[in-house]
Amino acid sequence: MRLMRLDKPIGILLLLWPTLWALWIAGEGHPHLWLIVVFVAGVVLMRSAGCVINDYADRKIDSHVKRTAQRPLTAGLVSKKEALVLFGILVALAFLLVVTLNPLTIGLSLVGAFLATSYPFTKRFTHLPQAYLGAAFGWAIPMAFAAQTGSVDPRSWWLFAAVLVWALIYDTMYAMVDRDDDLKIGVKSTAILFGRYDRLIISLLQLVFLGLLIHVGRLFGLGPYYYLGLAVAAVLMVYHQWLIRNRQRAPCF
C-alpha cells in the first residue's frame, strides 16, 4: 500500500479531477455509469502503477533526498522483483477495464500507459519532467471523450492543455521541496530551471491556466457554476502563492 502510495491519495485526486471534468463535459452532464466506474477505477490503478514504477526507477536517487529516503524500495522493505510484479498486476487490471470500451479508447490507453511508465525517467534528461507529468495526467481527457462519444472532440485539447499547465504549477511547487537535494545529485526539474524566478513564473502559469479554462467554458457553453468554480480556484491560487512566499520545504509541500 505504501509503495502504491494509497496512504497518500492526493495523487489520485490530481489525476481524477481532470478525468471527471472530461467525462462530464463529453457526456453533457450525463456520462455513462459504466464509464465512470472504469475511469475512476483506472485512475486508482494507473496512479498506483505510476508510483510503483517511479520508485523502482528512483530507488538509488531516493536515498539522497530527504523527503523520499524512507520509501519502501529505498528502505529495503520491498524487493525490486516484488515491485515489478505489482506494477505488472496493476497495469494488467487497468487494461482489463479498458478493453470493455471502444477500439479508439483502447488505442489511446496504450499511449497513456507509455506516458505513465516513461515519466519517472524524464527527470534525468530534461528540466521539464513536470510538463511530461501533465501530459500523462491529462491523457485521460482524450480517452474520456473517445469513450463517451466515439471520437476525440478537437475542443478537448484545450482542456488537455489546461491540465498540462496545471501540472506545471503544482508540481513545480512540489519540486521546490527537493530543489537543494536535486541540485546535489543532478536530478532536473522546473524548480531548478526557473530558479529565483520560480514564484513569478508560477503566477504567470496560473493566469494561463485560468485563461485556458475560461476558454474551455466558452467553447462548451458551460454555465455560471463553472465560472464560480474558477473564481474559487483563483482565490486558492493566491493562497498557494502566499504559502510558497519564503520557499520553505513544508509550505511548498
Q: Count of DSSP E strands?
A: 0
* Mean pLDDT value: 92
Count of helix runs: 11
* Rg calc: 18 Å
Helix content: over 70%
Order of helices and strands: HHHHHHHHHHH
Structure description:
With 253 residues, the protein is mainly α. It has 11 helices and no strands. α4 (103-122) packs antiparallel against α5, α5 runs antiparallel to α7 and α7 packs antiparallel against α9 (198-220). The longest helix has 30 residues, at 156-185. The chain is globular and about 50 Å long. 39% of the residues are buried. The model has no long low-confidence stretch (mean pLDDT 92).
Brief sketch in words of this structure:
This protein has 253 residues and is mostly helical. Helices cover 72% and strands 0% of the residues. α1 (10-26) runs antiparallel to α2 (33-57) and α2 runs antiparallel to α3 (80-98).
Give the key terms:
253 residues; globular; single chain; mainly alpha
Please outline the helices and strands:
Blueprint: H1 10-26, H2 33-57, H3 80-98, H4 103-122, H5 129-138, H6 140-149, H7 156-185, H8 190-194, H9 198-220, H10 224-243, H11 249-252
Helix pairs in contact: 1-2, 1-6, 2-3, 2-4, 4-5, 4-6, 5-7, 7-9, 9-10
